[in-house]
Predict the 3D structure of the following.
Amino acid sequence: MAAVNPAIHDTHHDGHAGHDDKPHGFLHRWLFTTNHKDIGTLYLVFSLTMFFIGGSFAMLIRAELFQPGLQLLQPETFNELTTMHALIMIFGAIMPAFVGLGNWMIPLQIGAPDMALPRMNNWSFWILPFAFLLLIGEIFMPGGGPQGGWTMYPPLSLEGGFNVAFMIFAIHLMGISSIMGAINIIATILNMRAPGMDLLKMPVFVWSWLITAFLLIAVMPVLAGAVTMLLTDKYFGTSFFHAAGGGDPVMYQHIFWFFGHPEVYIMILPAFGIVSEIIPTFSRKPIFGYQAMVYAIASIAFLSFIVWAHHMFTVGMPLGGELFFMYATMLIAIPTGVKVFNWLSTMWQGSLTFETPMLFAIAFVILFTIGGFSGVMCAIVPADFQYQDTYFVVAHFHYVLVSGAAFGIMAAAYYWLPKWSGNMYSEKWGKIHFWSSAIAVNVLFFPQHFVGLAGMPRRIPDYNVAFADFNMISSIGGFWFGASQLIFVGVIIHCVYFSRQRATAQVWEGARGLEWTVPSPAPFHTFSTPPVITNDMLAHGDVSH
Amino acid sequence: MISFGMVGARRAAAAVAAFALFASGTVMAGPQPWQLNMPTGVTSISQRIHGVHMLAFWICVAIGVIVYGAMVYAMFKFRKSRGAVAAKWSHNTMLEAVWTTIPILILIAMAWPATKLLIDMAHVENSEMTIKVTGYQWKWRYEYVDYFGKATPVNFISTLDAESNRVRQTGSGLDPHSVKEGDENVYLLNVDKPLVLPVGVKVRFVITADDVIHSWWVPDLGWKQDAIPGIINDNWTRIDVAGTYRGQCAELCGRDHGFMPIVVKAVPKAEFEQWLATQQAAASASKTAQAAPAAALPATQG
Amino acid sequence: MAQTQGAYYVPHGSHWPIVGSFGLLGAVGGAGLWLNEVMVGKPIMAVGIGLLVVMLFGWFGSVIRESLAGYYNKQVDVSFRMGMIWFIFSEVMFFAAFFGALFYARTFSVPWLGGEGDGALTNFYLWPQYAAAWPTNGPADIGGGFSTMSPWGIPLLNTLLLLSSGVTITIAHHALRTGHRARLLVFLALTVILGAIFLGFQVHEYAEAYEHFNLTLGSGIYGSTFFMLTGFHGLHVTLGAIMLAVMWARCAKGHFTRDNHFAFEAVAWYWHFVDVVWLGLFLFVYVL
Ligand code: HEA
Ligand code: HEA
Ligand code: CUA
Ligand SMILES: [Cu+2]
């Protein structure tokens, strides 16, 4: 290897169209791609599509719950929609969005020429559409889609027809995809950093993904194991989850939640990372307590492995188990609190401006914290005896998932869209989208706390008239929130295809970090030669010393 | 700091107003329109649960007031448009230590009463009667296993009342508001045969299911307990106030999960004993009439 | 070092991943249909698996070509290593789920059903005749009485086989590093053969279990965990043995060099992993 081999991409980040060596032809460009930016785009487009499909199921749910009495749906269809809504949102919308953002930004942020394993990167993505083809296709199969909730508890989940096998296999495929994606991200971060990009100088977003990827590799196989046992219980006569054969239906829940709880942090840690990029930028001040932020993420990840049974406080665990899982769960409030306080301190004595990404980031901090508070309330076992399986829990997790994870993704989209497309989005419409979403999401989910406390169980298609008023408010908020997302799509399409306003390389006045040193739009290949990194290029790190 | 104080006070006032609403919603037996909070319930346990819930709630409100207050203050004070110039600092070890320690203390304050309560709830022994609850798709079976040490043959199935069942069919066009018992709307919260229990007696529940997992929940008793096929869970209650308490199945159990309510009718002890006697008589009458099937009943699990 | 700057090899577009995705779709879609007794399922599954095999050959073929052409530098090599390590870690967690089921059943659910600890009421009300003991097919005697395989027959033999295969692969690796081609081929072949014998024994053991011991997948929790763990492991041995055989063929073609033979090492790691899992199985499934 005396000289640079001609087969090795040797483009410089000059953004010169002629040098861009993008593959020609649609198939070559998108189907066969090994380029992290194109794959990132594919992930993001896929995720947005799934967000709309999952969201339209939610709209049907909210329409049925608009008033008491069953007007639109059969109960089994309602259960099908609930189950599919959650599976699509979690595995189709939120997770792929984060992987897409990671694909786009991690190599740019650490000065790498691409992901470590570019061909596998392509495969990680292209498994997903097939997985969802299987999953969504079930709706049209005999017996319809799965109706047992996204948690798939046996024996109920085994009562389905065709959908049992297809749901399980779809989850296997999603697992393969996630694991390969996560391996790629870890290898990229550990192996591809430009010289001078020490681990403790990496952007917090990269850190959050490193830890998230570890969580993914640790728990996706466990989910695969759990559903494999469902499969054999259904089709091969095993008794893992039958008490009559010496198994235990509750065992499934333990295995599922050993996956499931880390899974919810998989859906929030990258959002923490995103917010930790955005708040310093628009505060024009370095992030407060960089190292503490990193250690906090690591502690949350560690704790996430020992709290799973807080989803099972009512299954009849021994007292010692209930207490252990209560204490462990409550502990998570501490590192999370450190993050919230550090974001706040980053803003303190900054020089704040409120462009759309910042608005979403601030809303994230506020609304995620509300979800965190209700989470801590759920962790208190005796109180959870009342909350469990009610709309209080539904409110909890939508605060952390919609106004948490999804807002984080939207913040990231606005923050990096100029970098991706080279154009500025419309700040006016971005702000309209923000305010509309931020208000609607509260109208949608806040009243759910009340009906939950008043005694409305989740996963029911119909309810007593006492719950009617708040459900109607919630549904109105739901339609409003859903409609607001049309603005989001409008802003994106306008920005990418129609906006006349060119973005500078720096884009945001206060932005720091390698991604802002390349032109906008980021050229097809960046950092083919590793950049020389100086301290003032770093996003964070201990630069102020 | 002035604007911070203002915001805090306004939030606190709003929260107090909300609490006043909470408090008024708690004495009724079923859910009420515009009800904002959990019922305090009718057992000492349910009241203590309400207590830990409110403690956690107020702690969260307090933390929220501080965090959001500071945030709002920062957003007004440190705007670039008001000429704010960014400081350079990014560390403060002292502060970080403080906001790691204080939450630990707060958490202990919440965990302590919760732990005591949980330990008390675990004491099912010394119960004076036993009810076996079995969940089916989509109904409940109640067996009065024993009452003050004496076995009883009383056992029956409890299902959604016919009126609710008619109204709840998809596209029935019937008005859920019309399903009433007295003044109370009982749509989807009424059954053909309620579980009758004596007031002031410690009742042990042994809970299981026959097909899939269900969960037995009456909010006024303070807890829910999953009903798992092949497994028995137990729990207990001692109801202090006579009344009719309504709940629902709280674990997704298939198509009609939303339609398997639970009604507990708590009556004074004497009245209960009278009721039990008539039921017993009826049960033994039917037992002699059709001896074989009735004899097979106690071993419900085949 | 300067000449490696910018030399991280980023491959051009490849059609193998999408072929692989179609392969997976066919494999699991076909399997799903088959399980639901739709007859086209089987052939669809076969086509899917066929596509996957074609994909593997094509994909690894490209990698081998690129490697032989010298496109890969040290950094690419490290990426491959990390990929393999984390892949094996994911497999460890996959097995962990099944081991977890075994441990949970043995320490919690079976004793509870038998009335120990928190299970007193469960036993009293639902399964009064059931006394917990391991092995068990549960209180309802699912699948009827069965007996278990003695650990000291075939399983012990299999343990020895796998342990020795761990030794032979190490010798082969050493031979590769010191440039002893003939020794490499012999010991690699030995490893494959040991793996194959292991599999043969396992097939025999399964046949015994089904025919003479009435121990089946349907034998309650014991049968479930026994066959799930050993079967899933057997699948890994099969894959490992196939990969070893491929490595043998590549060695025979003279593919690797003394210090550039990552594919070989990856397979060796995999084989050691399969080996270690077996030790866990032998201990927890057979002996204890
Ligand atoms: C992104 C997803 C996400 C996140 C981040 C969280 C975060 C948390 N969750 Fe949540 N949770 C879900 C998604 C998530 N959850 C989902 C999907 C379910 C339902 C699954 C299902 O059944 O379908 C669920 C359910 C769920 C339950 C089970 C409820 C039930 O079914 O009965 C519990 C119980 O303990 C719980 C607890 C917590 C806690 C303690 C946190 C903590 O991490 C929160 C920590 C944050 C804060 C506390 C706020 C900031 C901190 C401070 C300002 C410091 C000071 C604060 C204190 C001292 C209190 N969650
Ligand atoms: C990742 C997470 C995620 C996200 C983003 C969402 C988003 C939403 N969710 Fe969901 N949800 C879950 C995860 C998520 N949810 C989970 C895990 C469950 C539990 C499932 C279970 O019990 O098994 C659940 C359950 C759940 C329920 C309870 C169902 C039940 O218990 O029976 C409800 C009810 O209101 C609900 C509503 C919504 C709504 C209104 C949104 C909205 O935010 C959606 C907004 C988006 C759109 C609407 C799409 C875009 C717009 C259009 C398609 C345009 C057309 C629309 C109009 C013009 C109105 N969700
Ligand atoms: Cu029974 Cu839900
Ligand atoms: Cu959790």
